[in-house]
Amino acid sequence: MYAKLLTTKQNTVHKNLQHPLELVEAEIEKQGIVVIEGVNRMPVYHEPYVSPHMVAVLNHQGYSKGEYDLRPVHFGPHDFSVVYPNHTISAEESSDDYLVTLVVISKQFFEEIKHRLTYGATPFFHSNPLFRLSDEQYACMLDIVKLLKSVSMVEIDRKKDILTDLIDVLSQLARSFRVKTEVGPPGLSGKESTTGRTYFYQFYDLLVEHYLESREVAFYANKLCVSPKYFGFIIKQETGIGAGQWIAWYTIIRAKALLRHRTDLSVQQISNLLNFPDASSFSRYFRQNSGMTAKDYREQYINR
To answer: Is the pLDDT of residue 23 over 70?
Structure first.
């Protein structure tokens, strides 16, 4: 739904760049998982890109700069990143020696295997997708990524099971390495429960699908067949952030992207697209959750 709110120019720019990720789109859907080596640039420059896939990125050398959910990011040598579907990525620049490997998992394949993964879709990576690996950790991740590529390219019995096991190893290593190398946000210390993680992932999927329909915690609790009180408790316990805050965070990210990149639309039109009753309600919601009005936010980028 969100991708359709962005200008169609996005798809044209993305296609003309002939990024390796675009060239193997059909193979990703067919195989479920594709490992792409030798990638030397980001998919889109100066336009937002919302990937339908889960993508793990291992940076070998060089750097890229851009934004993840409208927050500045710098992706440098030996950084590792896990980007789950439906997050907004904008690329600004990359160095001449930029070189990464992508592990791309289709949405359908991930839906089929996620119940078998030890860590599943942890909020640890939803909120901040990248971290730096030590030399030893980088070598270990590189070995797993190469093995994933080798297995993905051969026809063998129980191929999906083997790939799932390798993806599980990759996710466990990423989770463990990250906990060792940095201190995460409150509630994301590596002690999430299986139940809480499952609820969060279901909640995030529902949020992506229904954020235009409702911004009420009770709506999502009802979808998950639990009481709003229990739902709010388990999301806060799992992530350190309340369910209402997650809803506001996701809505504001989408609003900011439209305000910045759809300058052909008025604030009133964006308010309508986001299903607010009127522009005043939208501006009030935007100010409460971002600290400024929608008009002021747009003007600070137009006037740059």
So the answer is: yes
Handedness of CA 26, 37, 40, 260 (dihedral sign): positive
Q: Is residue 186 in some structural domain?
A: no
| Residue in 107, 102, 114, 75 with CA at minimum distance from that of residue 91 | 75
* Whether pLDDT at 22 is above 80: no
Q: Is the dihedral of CA 286, 294, 91, 46 positive or negative?
A: positive
Is 270 in contact with 277 (CB distance < 8 Å)?
Answer: no
Give 72's strand partners: 67
Average pLDDT on 43-58 reads: 76
Confidence grade of residue 268 (pLDDT, cut at 50, 70, 90)? very high
Confidence band (pLDDT; 50, 70, 90) for 198? confident
CATH number at residue 151: 2.60.120
CA atoms of 303 and 298, how far apart (whole Å): 9
**Euclidean distance between CA atoms 13 and 46, whole angstroms:** 9
3-state secondary structure of 74: strand
The single residue listed with the structure tokens 């993840």 is 68
Residue holding tokens 């990759």?
170
**Whether residue 253 is found in the same domain as residue 148:** no
- Domain region containing 173: 2-181
pLDDT more than 90, % of the chain? 38
